[in-house]
Design a protein that fits this description.
The chain has four helices and 13 strands. The protein is of the alpha+beta class and 277 residues long.
Length: 277
């Protein structure tokens, strides 16, 4: 049953991309030559319908199981943003295994993180304390996915940039999961549980697929790649290594549980274990 669901979700994603491609292709003669194509919006309607069907398949089946307890992926003082402690799904969607995902941003002192406002329209990543912060393995495991070639873009933490982010986010979603999560790493924690770290800093990963890692080992740095408003970590557990076909899995961080949105939490700095031999 699980394999059938995943195959169906993958097929829906492929068909959805084909529908979006057909929609944009038919726009060309319409704009350039004024040719009206009566069926032009059919691919758009189909793409939206396929996305909705995929969302339904991504919903957890029945009551969620007990949270999987893992170590925190960061150290220092951080603030929780979108959190499953406040609502489920935390990001307003079950897609890409995000049902129980959380966003966290470094804030070593109150006000150290630039506030959202009208100006400046965009900031450089080094203005945010999270940029370059170490990301740590939450448990012993094996790296199954690792990608860090995408650029870290400017922030979108202003009202004008937010409007741009909404359009950008739609286009990234059309392009596929990897354009949304940006640079990322996925760990196989065993027992059918996988940890995803998204928006990783370009060129910062110290691991590659097949590597064994230990809890607390540094995997890379926090960045601002993909569909991101500012430098932060998007973390989630899921039941497959592929976000396209994944369902979310509840988590709890040892020592702090699941921080609620808008609250700060602090994780004591520890030494990072060396890579397994």
């Amino acid at each position: 049953m699980r394999g059938t669901r995943q195959a169906t979700m993958k097929a829906l994603a492929v068909l959805g991309h084909c529908c979006w491609a057909a929609f944009f292709v038919q726009l060309v003669p319409s704009f350039l030559y004024g040719i009206s194509i009566w069926w032009g919006f059919v691919p758009l309607i189909l793409a939206v319908g396929l996305k909705g069907a995929s969302q339904l398949l991504a919903r957890p089946a029945g009551e969620p199981g007990p949270p999987v307890e893992v170590e925190p992926p960061v150290t220092g003082r951080w603030s929780a943003l979108n959190s499953p402690a406040d609502r489920v799904p935390s990001h307003g969607t079950h897609g890409y295994g995000q049902t129980y995902a959380i966003d966290v941003a470094a804030e070593p002192t109150e006000g150290a993180r630039p506030a959202f406002g009208w100006w400046p329209v965009a900031r450089r990543n080094h203005d945010f304390p999270a940029f370059g912060a170490p990301l740590l393995a939450v448990a012993d495991g094996t790296v199954v996915r690792a990608s860090d070639w995408r650029r870290d873009h400017l922030s979108r933490n202003s009202y004008p940039a937010l409007a741009y982010l909404l359009v950008e986010g739609l286009l990234r979603d059309i392009a596929g999961a990897t354009m949304v999560i940006g640079n990322h790493v996925v760990l196989d924690l065993g027992d059918g549980t996988y940890a995803l770290y998204a928006h990783v800093r370009r060129g910062s990963l110290t691991v590659r697929p097949g590597d064994r890692v230990r809890a607390g080992q540094r995997l890379g740095d926090c960045g601002n790649s993909g569909n991101s408003s500012e430098s932060h970590l998007h973390f989630q557990l899921m039941d497959t290594p592929d976000p396209v076909t994944a369902r979310g899995v509840p988590f709890s961080w040892r020592g702090c549980g699941v921080p609620a949105g808008g609250t700060s939490f602090e994780i004591q700095q520890t030494s990072h274990p060396a890579s397994p031999a």
